[in-house]
Amino acid sequence: MLYSEIKERENRFIIALKIVFPFFILIVIFFYAFTIFNNNINNFVLLVLLIPIYVYYIFYLIYNGYKRTLIDFTTKAFIRKEIVAKIAKVKDKKNNTVILLHVDNIADINERYGISNSDQLLKSLTQKLDEFLKSYRFKNIPIGRFGGGNFLLVIKHSKKELTHLLTIFSKELKNKGINNIEVKIEFSLIEADYDQNVKNTIEQLFILLAENKKSDLELPNIKPDIFEQIVEDALKNNQIFFKYQPSINVETQKIEILEVLTKIYSKENGSLSKGQIERIVNYAGREKDFDEKIFPILLDEIYPLLDKNILFSIDISPVSLRNNSFKVYLLNLFRQKKINPNQFILEISEINSYEDMNRFREIIVSYKKEGFKIALSNFGGNNCSLEYIKHLPIDMVKFDIEFTKKIEDERQGKILELYLELVKTLHVKSMIKFADKELLFEKIKALKPDFIQGFFISKPKNLEQIVGELE
User: Fold this and answer.
1) What pLDDT score was predicted for residue 283?
2) Band of the pLDDT at 220, cuts 50, 70, 90?
3) What is the pLDDT of residues 308-338, one digit of tens each?
């Protein structure tokens, strides 16, 4: 039995005592009432008053007992509120480690095997994790479901040894699976004394998890509460600025696209890229706010370049793109500033594909009708870009950095060639990025993509430098 189930049983037992104990008191009251009062009317009035109150009290306790359950009915682990409270109440924080366990392929399991099988799998996973920890003499470990395929634990043990044990557990699951279903789990760990605010500790766990999955992007060593405040201040005070990286048309050898690189300025920490902060923004649900802040500043800055016949490619969140109020805001902004959207490419990237593909297609079409172009970044990488190219009217794809890194690899090179042929057949423009040397540039050029970008062509520059380069 899970520790969470034991605590839930204790909770139910306490509720039962709260129900039964007043019943005995009620019997004692009636016993003395009938002994003291000979008048049956007085006893009847007492009966009429106390019994309805007691019945109401019982229903109240039962209702609140179910309402205040400690465990998640699917997995039998602690609910989010309870596990967060338990982490907050840890006394010896210095010697305790908080763990985030993430089922990496939960979306795929839901799609392939259905929600009911997915729920059963998560329940089995919780039990297997508990059994595994008990086999290493970790007893009464609180395991809580944070949501979806995410679980939180707090264990009084060193982070180094727990990392080793969880690696063993993840490998066992990958090899054996659960109920004949392959299970891939990722995890991150942090000392319980990382931050006094448990919310910040959990945010950092998600950041560490993302870093483990994609180590190319390094976040500065800033605590989450300070980091989030930097983003808040940037949104409030418009501490946002831009760099521009040119891309050339392979046929004309001229600069035709400027990729907009959004950055945030912090007095204490200097320049932070959008890539560095987007996890915090996404986790806080501020994608739309952030994207809405970017556009008016950008449009004012690039106004002198709008007559240069240049396309501007800017990365925005798919969450913003699918938000109808963001679309209304964006179109009104362009109309107010009298700027034609046909010079703008909205660049998106998403790990998991959006469920309602028909609706997403309608949204993309509506943007294209206004003049915007839509691009997929990191095409062919570990994301849903292939799924989107199948269903959505995309204008351009920007290939994942992996293809550039492994262009010498025969297999990777062949796949890149086939992808280029595919998108050309679909009348979709292509761009290969990260051409940092002449030799690499020539190899990419020989593949005949539509556009090439990289340090060999130009490093990201501010507006004044870009104006000079274009002239």
Assistant:
1) 60
2) very low
3) 889 999 999 898 999 999 999 999 999 999 9
Find tokens 């370049």 and name the residue: 305
CB under 8 Å to 118, separation ≥6 — which residues? Answer: 106, 109, 110
Q: CA 303, 304, 308 angle in degrees (round to 5)?
A: 105
Q: What is the per-residue pLDDT for 107?
A: 83
| 235/292 Cα distance (integer angstroms) | 9
Tally the C-alpha atoms within 13 A of residue 61's C-alpha that lie toward its C-beta: 18
Using an 8 Å Cβ cutoff, are 454 and 436 in contact?
yes
Residue 203 has pLDDT above 60, yes or no: yes
CA distance 424 to 183: 37
Query: Is 437 within 8 Å of 407 (Cβ atoms)?
Result: no
Maximum average pLDDT range among 27-31, 103-107, 249-253, 434-438: 249-253
Question: Is residue 438 packed enough to be buried (19+ CB in 10 Å), middle (13-18) or exposed (0-12)?
Answer: exposed
**What is the value of pTM for the model shown?**
0.56
Of the candidates 87, 82, 90, 91, the residue with the CA atom closest to the CA atom of residue 99: 87
Domain boundaries, the chain: 3-67, 80-213, 224-470
Q: Which residues pair with 191 in a beta bridge?
A: 97
Q: Alpha helices, DSSP H only, in 37-114?
A: 40-67, 80-89, 106-113
Do 80-213 and 224-470 have matching folds? no
**Confidence band of 229 (pLDDT split at 50, 70, 90):** confident
- Vertex 280: Cα angle to 277 and 281 (nearest 5): 85
224-470, what's its fold?
Answer: TIM Barrel (3.20.20)
Contact 250, 442 (CB under 8 A): no
List CB contacts of 342: < 8 A, sequence separation 6 or more: 371, 372, 373
What class, spelled out in words, does domain 80-213 have in CATH? alpha beta
Listed ranges 69-73, 183-187, 398-402; the one with the highest mean pLDDT: 398-402
Q: How confident is the model at residue 257 (pLDDT cuts 50, 70, 90)?
A: very high
Residue 237 near residue 291, CB atoms below 8 Å: no
What's the rounded Cα separation, in Å, for the pair 242 and 464? Answer: 11
